[in-house]
Amino acid sequence: MSDSPRLREWLAKDRLIASIKDPKAMDAFLKTDIKIAFLLFGNISVIGKFVKHLKEHDRMVYVHLDKIQGISHDAEGLKFLHRFVAPYGIITTKSHMVQKAKKLNLSTIQRLFLVDTDAIKNGLASMEKVQPDAVEIMPALIPSMVSELKLQTDVPLVTGGLLTNPNQMREALEYGASAVSTGNPGLWDISYTQRVGSEWK
Asked: Fewest CB atoms within 10 A around its CB: which of 19, 25, 132, 195?
């Protein structure tokens, strides 16, 4: 089984996740105190180098399988990723890839786009069936949906997309998100998601 307890432990103390979309953003990320990275760019020839670089800086790296060019979306593609790239886990929108990744002991985050009620219904059914270690909900600007989903699953919920300021991040956390993810380096400050007592920093 994948290491779900460890992910939950990390999310409990590190509620901000950096979504890295290009090499410049990766350099900016390594100057922060954020520990979890979602790697959203690259191809089969460079992804191993990127993951190794981040791991050498003691970061927990998730590779977004759907964004990496040249890696097939099947069992063989996952085996290659597991053996030669060795991220901590994967992100994908595809439930069958979550199932295959779990068999390889990769941690799994399933990305869901909440575009309508059918997407929510189907997303919940998929979560129940494949049991990812966490779910990333897109976009983040519908925090009320986080609280509704929290009533129906105990899977950790990460929310991301369209975030432009710290207040939006805090609102998502107030509504029950385990963490927020953002590709905006201007928001990569862990103080934005930390409390002192009942107050935000």
From this structure: 195
